[in-house]
Amino acid sequence: MRHTLRCSRVISLCLLSVLPMLAPAAQAADERQLLQAINGYRAHPQRCDGRTSPALAPLALKSNLALPVGYGGSLRDGLKARGYQAAMVQSIKLVGARDVNAAFAMLRSDYCDSMLDSQYTDIGLTRSGRQWQLVLARPLIDSRSSDGRSADKTLLAQVNAARAKPRMCGRQRFSAARPLSWNSALKTAALGHSRSMATGDYFAHQGPDGESPYDRARAAGYRGRQIGENIAAGQGSPSQAMASWLASPGHCANLMNPMFTQVGAASTADTRSEYGIYWTMMFGAK
């Protein structure tokens, strides 16, 4: 009897040592299963709140969106600390869902509009018992802008499209202006300033050493007689940066200035900085 009793104790201890290892694996499997259910739901046209939603792309599971259940801090700050700069974000907490099916039923009942929002691209999932935490987000930085040559072409096309039409910049009227040509030295100067702002976490035309846009253009090898500069921060794509400049009278005036003949522009991202991404566009005239 003693021998049998000792064996039982040994078996119990073995089970206790194995269970903590099994729990995270089971939890991860539940999270993957819920993601599959959500993406399956998005993959087909659905009716939600009386309207039909088209089929949508799947959400990507991101570990840095998996905030702890019950997280009560600033959502954007919490994600930023994990290296995710969000353009838009929503947190959903489910309470009382005993399994994946129950959790998905709650989502369909109360959050179908969020699951079918085409603006979200990423998701984070966390479970603790019967509580589930979901974070839906779209990153600030558009991954399509990561190709430097594509961004160059987009910025040049957009600035010339803006100059092709007469417009009001605040109270100042500008006629249509001739298109600008791309200048690699101006781009080099713009890239240097965007990097400086991103890594130095500041937003200003004057650099930390006191250099001006003219100084940066000269250091990059540009010998034009006139220099102008637009800067922006927090816009996730070239289109958004251009829209912000056109909405600002002073920046708009630079874009429409008929004296400028050349342009160069670049952006740099750093998720640790306040705004995440910084843009510089430099104008010149030979």
Fill in the keyword field for this structure:
single chain, 286 residues, alpha+beta, 4-stranded mixed sheet, 9 helices, 12 strands, 42% helix, 23% strand, disordered N terminus
Describe the structure.
This protein has 286 residues and is of the alpha+beta class. It is 42% helix and 23% strand. Strand 1 and strand 2 form a beta hairpin. The radius of gyration is 26 Å and the shape is elongated.
- Helix and strand succession? HEEEHEHHEEHEEEHHEHHEE
CA distance, first residue to last residue: 100 Å
Count of helix runs: 9
State mean pLDDT (0 to 100 scale): 86
Output the structural class: alpha+beta
Runs in which pLDDT lies below 50 for 5 or more consecutive residues are 1-19
How are the strands of the biggest sheet laid out side by side? 3-5-6-4
Radius of gyration: 26 Å
User: Roughly what percent helix?
Assistant: 40-55%
- Approximate strand percentage: 15-25%
Q: What about the largest sheet?
A: 4 strands, mixed
Could you write a compact summary of the structure shown?
The protein has helices spanning 2-42, 75-81, 100-110, 112-115, 148-163, 184-200, 213-219, 238-246, 249-256, and strands at 46-48, 51-53, 60-61, 86-95, 122-128, 131-139, 167-169, 172-174, 181-182, 226-233, 262-269, 277-285. It has 286 residues and is an alpha+beta fold.
